[in-house]
Design brief:
The protein is mainly alpha-helical. It is 70% helix and 7% strand. A three-stranded antiparallel sheet has the order 1-3-2. The longest helix is centred in the C-terminal third of the chain and has 33 residues. It is globular, with a radius of gyration of 21 Å. It starts with a helix and ends with a helix.
């Protein structure tokens, strides 16, 4: 038992669980991102759109909405704001006149390359806190937790849909 855990246990304080630590990590990432984009027009949701376009390339707004699991109305607002900020450009779809293609501007492509470099640096910095011999186990554990959480979320969504269908 670590000395922090022993101190908490001796004081009768609850010992943080793995879930507590994961939630804390998520909150710290959100705080870090908010600070990184303070004073800009970027928000976590907008950065998520840019990240998706950076990795998957130009796509329709409908495809973006589907990939990000948001409504068409939501994606329109996000793309409107990103276009106003000079981060994305809209162009007509080459074969479907009802659709619009969204792509990163040159400025956004440069910014996304910078962000990917920062992402790699932060990954290295964080993994540097873990003994190299423990890293493979950590990565397997994080992958397993993420996979299980995805399963639980998907199961919950399916159960809610089934309840709503039964009640309708």
């Amino acid at each position: 038992m670590t000395s922090e855990r022993a101190d908490r246990t001796a004081a009768g304080a609850p010992v943080p669980t793995v879930l507590d630590r994961l939630i804390e990590i998520g909150e710290l990432f959100q705080q870090d991102m908010a600070r990184a984009f303070e004073g800009t027009s970027l928000t976590p949701a907008r950065v998520r759109v840019l990240w998706e376009l950076s990795h998957a390339g130009p796509m329709t707004q409908q495809a973006l909405a589907t990939r990000l699991e948001v409504s068409a109305r939501n994606i329109t607002g996000l793309v409107d704001a990103l276009e106003a900020g000079g981060h994305v450009a809209r162009s007509p779809h080459p074969t479907d006149r009802r659709a619009t293609i969204v792509s990163l501007t040159a400025q956004a492509r440069r910014r996304m390359r910078e962000m990917q470099g920062e992402h790699a640096e932060l990954t290295a910095e964080l993994l540097g806190a873990v003994d190299p011999a423990d890293r493979p186990a950590l990565e397997r554990g994080v992958d397993a937790i993420a996979a299980r959480l995805r399963e639980l979320v998907e199961s919950d969504v399916a159960a809610r849909a089934a309840r709503e269908a039964a009640g309708a």
